[in-house]
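Please fill in the sequence for the structure shown.

STRUCTURE ENCODING:
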């Protein structure tokens, strides 16, 4: 990418698109290199510039656009600190794959929830959505509450509340996310997860019971 004016949103997008034209857009590692390069070039940009670039990318809506949009905000401390609930809700709309859901939930939404930017009411609403991807998103948002690499310190009540709301869900994308949410909590607080499994054993999908039990007994997802 050539030198860019870090205040000119249109110029930033033109330069980014030129680089994306030379990148296989289904190749996540290659896209991440593009994103990291953009983050370096915009490291000193005002938070509003980062957010405006991300707004434009999310509006375009492809996997590559959303990935770069979410990650440049996650990598820019000032931009992340400027996020508000309204923008995050807008950015959650139109998620149609596990990849975008998981990226958004772990990189932005879950951490924003932990920091009080997203309210419990929003996550609860997602957990009761008729949209499978919103329900998955509510579970993915629990991961940054508990995983150290995402800044989590553990949050039993909020994690288990969302898991309880989706305990009877049999959509495969939701079932896999429920297993993930419980396994991440189990790494930090295994006791409450054992109790949850015991209370809900008959209601949970067999996959969840199997994977979470294996995690609790062996430390692995599968053996």
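FILLED IN BY: designer on duty
SEQUENCE:
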């Amino acid at each position: 990418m050539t030198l860019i004016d870090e205040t000119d949103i249109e110029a930033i997008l033109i330069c980014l698109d030129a680089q994306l034209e030379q990148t296989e857009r289904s190749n996540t590692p290659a896209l991440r290199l593009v994103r990291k390069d953009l983050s370096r070039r915009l490291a000193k940009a005002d938070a509003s510039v980062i957010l405006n670039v991300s707004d434009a990318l999310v509006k375009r809506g492809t996997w590559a656009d959303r990935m770069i949009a979410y990650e440049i905000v996650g990598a820019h401390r000032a931009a992340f600190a400027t996020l508000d609930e309204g923008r995050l809700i807008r950015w959650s709309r139109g998620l149609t794959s596990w990849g975008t859901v998981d990226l958004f939930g772990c990189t932005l939404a879950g951490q924003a929830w932990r920091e009080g930017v997203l309210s419990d009411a929003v996550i609860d609403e997602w957990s009761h959505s008729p949209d499978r991807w919103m329900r998955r998103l509510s579970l993915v948002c629990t991961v940054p509450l508990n995983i150290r690499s995402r800044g989590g310190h553990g949050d039993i009540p909020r994690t288990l509340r969302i898991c309880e709301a989706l305990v009877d869900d049999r959509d495969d994308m939701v079932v896999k996310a429920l297993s993930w949410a419980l396994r991440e909590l189990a790494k930090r607080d295994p006791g409450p997860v054992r109790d949850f499994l015991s209370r809900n054993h008959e209601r949970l999908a067999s996959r969840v019971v199997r994977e979470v039990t294996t995690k609790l007994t062996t430390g692995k997802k599968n053996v």
